[in-house]
Amino acid sequence: MLKQSTAWPTMVILIILTLCTSSCKSTDEPISLDVGLLNPNKATQAISKGFIDGLREYDQDNRINIIEYPCEGSCVVDPCEGTCDIDSALQELIGRNVSMLFTVTTPATKKARVLAGEKNIPLVFAMNDPIHSGVINSLANPGGNLTGIQIGGSVPKSLEWLITIAPSVEHIVVPIKFDTKAAKQ
Predict the structure, then answer these.
(1) Strand 64-69 with 33-38, pairing
(2) 6-15, 66-75, 97-106, 171-180 — most confident range
Protein backbone atom coordinates (compact mmCIF):
# COMPACT_ATOMS: atom_id res chain seq x y z
CA MET A 1 0.00 0.00 0.00
CA LEU A 2 1.27 3.47 -0.83
CA LYS A 3 2.08 5.85 1.98
CA GLN A 4 -0.32 8.76 2.21
CA SER A 5 2.39 11.31 1.35
CA THR A 6 3.17 9.61 -1.95
CA ALA A 7 -0.26 8.25 -2.80
CA TRP A 8 -1.80 11.34 -4.39
CA PRO A 9 0.98 12.24 -6.86
CA THR A 10 1.24 8.60 -7.90
CA MET A 11 -2.54 8.29 -8.16
CA VAL A 12 -2.81 11.48 -10.24
CA ILE A 13 -0.19 10.23 -12.70
CA LEU A 14 -2.03 6.90 -13.00
CA ILE A 15 -5.33 8.70 -13.55
CA ILE A 16 -3.96 10.94 -16.27
CA LEU A 17 -2.33 7.98 -18.02
CA THR A 18 -5.57 5.99 -17.74
CA LEU A 19 -7.62 8.84 -19.11
CA CYS A 20 -5.22 9.48 -21.95
CA THR A 21 -5.05 5.87 -23.02
CA SER A 22 -8.82 5.49 -22.92
CA SER A 23 -9.88 8.94 -24.13
CA CYS A 24 -7.07 10.57 -26.11
CA LYS A 25 -7.44 10.47 -29.85
CA SER A 26 -4.79 11.33 -32.38
CA THR A 27 -5.94 14.80 -33.33
CA ASP A 28 -4.32 18.16 -33.17
CA GLU A 29 -7.19 19.50 -31.10
CA PRO A 30 -6.55 19.52 -27.33
CA ILE A 31 -8.75 17.13 -25.40
CA SER A 32 -10.73 18.25 -22.39
CA LEU A 33 -11.56 15.74 -19.69
CA ASP A 34 -14.48 15.95 -17.28
CA VAL A 35 -13.88 14.26 -13.94
CA GLY A 36 -16.92 13.59 -11.76
CA LEU A 37 -16.23 13.79 -8.02
CA LEU A 38 -18.56 12.44 -5.35
CA ASN A 39 -17.64 12.68 -1.69
CA PRO A 40 -20.76 12.44 0.47
CA ASN A 41 -18.85 12.64 3.77
CA LYS A 42 -17.93 16.12 4.95
CA ALA A 43 -15.39 14.60 7.37
CA THR A 44 -13.25 13.42 4.43
CA GLN A 45 -13.24 16.60 2.35
CA ALA A 46 -9.45 16.83 2.74
CA ILE A 47 -9.23 13.73 0.52
CA SER A 48 -11.23 15.47 -2.23
CA LYS A 49 -9.10 18.59 -1.87
CA GLY A 50 -5.89 16.55 -2.16
CA PHE A 51 -7.21 14.84 -5.27
CA ILE A 52 -8.25 18.14 -6.87
CA ASP A 53 -4.97 19.82 -5.94
CA GLY A 54 -3.04 16.90 -7.40
CA LEU A 55 -4.97 17.06 -10.67
CA ARG A 56 -4.46 20.82 -10.89
CA GLU A 57 -0.72 20.43 -10.31
CA TYR A 58 -0.38 18.11 -13.31
CA ASP A 59 -2.95 19.88 -15.49
CA GLN A 60 -0.77 22.68 -16.85
CA ASP A 61 -3.06 23.30 -19.86
CA ASN A 62 -6.28 23.47 -17.80
CA ARG A 63 -7.88 20.63 -19.73
CA ILE A 64 -9.34 18.81 -16.75
CA ASN A 65 -12.75 20.00 -15.63
CA ILE A 66 -13.75 18.77 -12.18
CA ILE A 67 -17.49 18.36 -11.68
CA GLU A 68 -18.05 18.01 -7.96
CA TYR A 69 -21.48 16.89 -6.81
CA PRO A 70 -22.44 18.89 -3.70
CA CYS A 71 -23.52 16.81 -0.72
CA GLU A 72 -24.60 17.88 2.73
CA GLY A 73 -24.80 15.75 5.82
CA SER A 74 -22.97 12.48 6.21
CA CYS A 75 -23.02 9.42 4.06
CA VAL A 76 -20.65 7.03 5.76
CA VAL A 77 -23.36 4.39 5.98
CA ASP A 78 -26.17 3.51 3.59
CA PRO A 79 -28.83 4.84 3.74
CA CYS A 80 -27.26 8.27 4.10
CA GLU A 81 -27.84 10.65 6.95
CA GLY A 82 -28.36 13.97 5.23
CA THR A 83 -29.37 15.27 1.87
CA CYS A 84 -27.03 13.36 -0.43
CA ASP A 85 -28.75 10.81 -2.61
CA ILE A 86 -25.82 8.82 -3.96
CA ASP A 87 -27.84 7.18 -6.73
CA SER A 88 -29.08 10.52 -8.05
CA ALA A 89 -25.63 12.07 -7.71
CA LEU A 90 -23.99 9.31 -9.72
CA GLN A 91 -26.72 9.35 -12.36
CA GLU A 92 -26.25 13.10 -12.76
CA LEU A 93 -22.46 12.84 -13.03
CA ILE A 94 -22.66 9.98 -15.53
CA GLY A 95 -25.35 11.88 -17.44
CA ARG A 96 -22.83 14.67 -17.90
CA ASN A 97 -20.60 12.22 -19.81
CA VAL A 98 -17.69 12.37 -17.39
CA SER A 99 -14.43 10.80 -18.52
CA MET A 100 -13.78 9.41 -15.05
CA LEU A 101 -15.40 9.19 -11.60
CA PHE A 102 -13.68 9.75 -8.27
CA THR A 103 -15.57 8.57 -5.19
CA VAL A 104 -14.95 8.69 -1.47
CA THR A 105 -16.78 6.42 1.03
CA THR A 106 -17.87 2.83 0.74
CA PRO A 107 -21.51 3.43 -0.27
CA ALA A 108 -20.53 5.86 -3.05
CA THR A 109 -17.80 3.59 -4.37
CA LYS A 110 -19.92 0.43 -4.34
CA LYS A 111 -22.71 2.10 -6.30
CA ALA A 112 -20.30 3.88 -8.65
CA ARG A 113 -18.54 0.59 -9.41
CA VAL A 114 -21.75 -0.86 -10.83
CA LEU A 115 -22.79 2.25 -12.78
CA ALA A 116 -19.30 3.10 -14.03
CA GLY A 117 -18.78 -0.51 -15.08
CA GLU A 118 -21.98 -0.45 -17.15
CA LYS A 119 -20.80 2.68 -18.99
CA ASN A 120 -17.10 1.70 -19.11
CA ILE A 121 -16.10 4.82 -17.15
CA PRO A 122 -12.82 4.61 -15.20
CA LEU A 123 -13.42 4.77 -11.45
CA VAL A 124 -10.90 5.95 -8.87
CA PHE A 125 -11.82 5.49 -5.21
CA ALA A 126 -10.63 6.41 -1.74
CA MET A 127 -12.30 4.33 0.94
CA ASN A 128 -11.60 2.55 4.21
CA ASP A 129 -11.62 -1.12 3.29
CA PRO A 130 -12.12 -1.84 -0.41
CA ILE A 131 -11.25 -5.53 -0.07
CA HIS A 132 -13.57 -6.50 2.81
CA SER A 133 -16.28 -4.25 1.35
CA GLY A 134 -16.24 -6.37 -1.80
CA VAL A 135 -15.24 -3.55 -4.15
CA ILE A 136 -11.98 -5.24 -5.18
CA ASN A 137 -10.16 -8.49 -4.51
CA SER A 138 -6.68 -6.99 -4.20
CA LEU A 139 -5.12 -3.53 -3.77
CA ALA A 140 -2.26 -4.57 -6.07
CA ASN A 141 -4.60 -5.84 -8.81
CA PRO A 142 -8.05 -4.29 -8.40
CA GLY A 143 -9.22 -5.49 -11.81
CA GLY A 144 -11.85 -4.02 -14.06
CA ASN A 145 -11.95 -0.34 -14.81
CA LEU A 146 -11.11 0.86 -11.30
CA THR A 147 -8.24 1.72 -9.03
CA GLY A 148 -7.85 3.59 -5.81
CA ILE A 149 -6.38 3.85 -2.37
CA GLN A 150 -7.33 2.56 1.03
CA ILE A 151 -7.72 5.43 3.46
CA GLY A 152 -7.39 4.94 7.13
CA GLY A 153 -6.20 1.48 7.78
CA SER A 154 -6.54 -1.54 9.93
CA VAL A 155 -7.74 -0.82 13.45
CA PRO A 156 -5.94 -3.87 14.90
CA LYS A 157 -2.71 -2.89 13.14
CA SER A 158 -3.06 0.72 14.35
CA LEU A 159 -3.46 -0.46 17.94
CA GLU A 160 -0.48 -2.78 17.56
CA TRP A 161 1.67 0.15 16.39
CA LEU A 162 0.39 2.39 19.20
CA ILE A 163 1.36 -0.19 21.82
CA THR A 164 4.76 -0.65 20.16
CA ILE A 165 5.43 3.09 20.07
CA ALA A 166 3.93 3.96 23.47
CA PRO A 167 3.81 0.80 25.61
CA SER A 168 2.91 2.72 28.77
CA VAL A 169 -0.44 3.93 27.39
CA GLU A 170 -3.25 2.68 29.59
CA HIS A 171 -6.34 4.33 28.06
CA ILE A 172 -7.23 4.85 24.41
CA VAL A 173 -10.22 6.83 23.19
CA VAL A 174 -11.55 5.71 19.81
CA PRO A 175 -14.48 7.75 18.54
CA ILE A 176 -16.47 5.54 16.19
CA LYS A 177 -19.97 5.05 14.89
CA PHE A 178 -20.95 1.58 16.11
CA ASP A 179 -23.37 0.60 13.34
CA THR A 180 -20.70 0.45 10.62
CA LYS A 181 -18.55 -2.43 9.41
CA ALA A 182 -15.45 -0.49 10.50
CA ALA A 183 -16.68 -0.68 14.10
CA LYS A 184 -16.75 -4.47 13.93
CA GLN A 185 -12.97 -4.63 13.46
Answers:
(1) parallel
(2) 97-106
